[in-house]
Amino acid sequence: RWLVTANYSGGSVTLLPIGEDGALGAPAAVVQHEGPSRFHDGPHPHAAVPVGDFVLVPDCGLDRIYVYRLDGDRGALVPNEPPWAELAPAAGPRHLALHDRGYLYCINERGSTVTAFAYDRERGALRELQTLSTLPDGFEGRNACADIHLHPSGRFLYGSNRGHDSIAVFTVDEATGRLTAAGHVPTGGRTPRNFAVDPTGTYLLAANQDTDTIVTFRIDQATGALHETGLVAAVPTPVCVHIVGG
User: Fold this and answer.
1) Cβ atoms of residues 118 and 102 within 8 Å
2) Calpha distance 122→169 (Å, rounded)
3) Grouped pLDDT means (10 residues each) for the chain, 246 residues
4) Distance in angstroms (rounded) separating the CA atoms of residues 99 and 214
5) Residue 97, phi then psi, degrees to nearest 5
């Protein structure tokens, strides 16, 4: 019934109605983000993630995850109470992964970190649990995180590093939502902007934007570790990977 978009350059979030024929109507609501930007030149909403009656919007420029209540009767995005969760200065929240047990994980582009939250589905409230680095100890090169995904089992979490050019692996304590770092696996190319975990949880496919490859890894079902398969597909400048039909 509704489509939500995040406008990275304009700093806004838009709600559009979907007609019975699938056509999009004029925007019902446009919410402009405002506030002090610690790293970017202003607000930069990077995604809009519907979760039940709420829409979560990580803003890479303002270091916040905004929470809106979707009012479908009025066609409105209503700021929640509280209206956002604050992250560390210059963290750069980029993408989100939601756990079935009420946890939310945010990968932070500029901070090269993952932040774990407890998420209250009834109130739309976020409570920070911990923040961990996506990089190994001692790494001093440039890096910017990109994508994040949970394993279908809910026991493992993965995040991509552009610069270190790796997938960071974490195990998930499903009783508390807290993470434990479990290693880093080179993606076999440069700038893994995006990756996907197949619905069976057997494979992870990493898209290396600057080396024109998608590399397939097998996932260890006991530990979440990634193992090379030798499968490499040549794809010009891959920036997004979605698995369909399975």
Assistant:
1) yes
2) 30
3) 96 97 97 83 94 96 97 96 96 97 97 98 97 96 98 98 98 98 98 97 98 98 98 98 86
4) 26
5) -135, 125
Q: Extract the tokens encoding 17.
A: 């109605």
pLDDT of residue 69: 97
Q: How many helices (H) and strands (E) does the chain have?
A: 0, 19
Omega before residue 82 within 30° of 0, cis: yes
Exposed (0-12), middle (13-18) or buried (19+): which is 9, by Cβ within 10 Å? exposed
d(CA 22, CA 50): 19
| Residue 246 confidence (pLDDT) | 60
Beta-strand relationship, 166-172 and 179-186: antiparallel
What is the DSSP code string of 133-184?
A: ESS-TT--S--EEEEEEE-TTSSEEEEEEETTTEEEEEEE-TTT--EEEEEE
Kindly list the structural domains of the chain, giving each domain's residue range(s) and its CATH number in brackets, ordered by start: 1-71 (no CATH), 87-246 (2.130.10.10)
DSSP state of 41: S
pLDDT for the residue numbered 85: 98
